[in-house]
Amino acid sequence: MAGGSNREGKGLPPEGETGTFPLQVCEWDRLSYYFVLAGAVAHPETPACHLMPISPTHLIRCAVLVPILLLSPPPGSGQEVDPQVYRVDAPAPEGLDREAAARETRAILEDLIRIDTQNPPGNELAAARYFEELFGDLEGVEVHIHETAPERANFVARLSAESPTRAPVIVMGHMDVVGADPEAWTTPPFEPTERGDYLYGRGTIDDKGMLAAAAVVFRLLARDRAALQRDVIFLATADEETGGAEGIWALLEERPELIDDAEFVLNEGGRIRVGDGRVRTVNIQTVEKVPYNVRVRASGVSGHGSVPLPDNALAALARAVNRVHEWRPPVRLNETTRLYFERLAEVEEDPDVRAAMEGISSATDPQEVDRHARVLQEDPLHNAILRTGASLTMIEGGFRSNVIPSEGEATFNVRILPEEDIREVVTEMQRIGGEPSVTFELVGDPVEDVPETSPVDTDLFRAMQTAAEIMAPDAVVMPFMSTGATDAQATRGAGIPTYGILPFPLVMEDELRMHGDDERVPIPALGWATEYIYRVLGEVAR
Ligand SMILES: [Zn+2]
What we know:
Helix content is 35%, strand content 21%. The protein is of the alpha/beta class and 542 residues long. The strands form 6 sheets. A 6-stranded mixed β-sheet has the order 3-4-8-5-9-19, sandwiched between helices. Strands 18-11-10-20 form a 4-stranded mixed β-sheet. Strands 14-16-12-17 form a 4-stranded antiparallel β-sheet.
């Protein structure tokens, strides 16, 4: 280990220098991690991460310890999940074989990951054909492939109840995924890869995992069609990741009859959060913030870089965008967010934060609301729920280092509270920006009919709450406003109450991999999700 010709490459000192050498922790590779760990065990008195003496005895001890340590993954490598989290004490619901369902969900998910549906371009037609095949032989099921553009399609399967007494329920997911940079991933993004307790692959948690679980449940329900009180519609959409024009919006425009008799929709968009080895919260999405982009343009006098001008478009742009960046729009709560903070307080451990959550959920006096908001807004996730948010996402300007340009441009991605009016928000951004030569303007048109919040007193919401209470009795269930947008905007807009869940209990670190590199799902969460959806759909459809 100490010899070899590539010593420098391993961060080792040049040959000939014996004794001690520094190991830089930040640059370690896997092998040097084990080497250091073995050294620490062999010489507990040595601060191993800084200096490690080499001696023959040391090397012998390392030679024994390294193979042992190699058998266990390094602590903090994050490949293990706590099995406790996914253990359900309640007996399996009738008709569900837990192991078989988990196995089947995984198999379908792996198939879906291999179908590359990066959007753009999407290519969802291939996934739609896959579902057509998967459901093709089920009795009582009618399938439709709704092509919206070359290689792009929505997929709808309707399982008909023999004698329905109620309107259909839809379970919906999207087939497209965001792009993945194979260089940045440690596994091939379109090849399902098992590592530790996880399955890696693009789409595992957004949203192919949910589609796989829903597909298994759909097939199970089809086996016992006589028990159904309503039709069950499986809807797999295209183009969710870029706004749904070739997906849900096209379906509602061109083939509304395939889905518009439904009473409600079960969709993505909620969260099941894990902390301290248990499921802590089940957030059922009932409303979303409304997304917009606002373009900022600055103009000024152009000139040669050798003669600085007081009036510089880029400087004005920088001042204006910075003021808006630092701006905190007013705090505004709605029924969902009030209930959200009230329930979240039940599992919050920090006493100050808990008091602020309790306080804000019942406060009516604006000053009191602001006082609590000041505590909560320290957490960016809470902050995004309290108010409209504007994130600076793009900035452009200049074309040559010695030329003062006459213009510059920036973009804010703005997510407004559903009760707010984007026109007023843009006017306010203009005022806050405070630069006469800088203008703020909305990209596209305002959404005229912002969909209503889906009510919490429906059979579907109740079934989602009940299933969560059975499977995770210690968790707190709450309605949730998501800061991102999904296809629910379209279905709610069509007047169909829509409820979002991400049916996998996840720790925050895994949840944040959505759209990021190394997206992954805990393998035991697959069976959990399938059982959850089975309980929910079984409850409302039978
Ligand atoms: Zn999604």
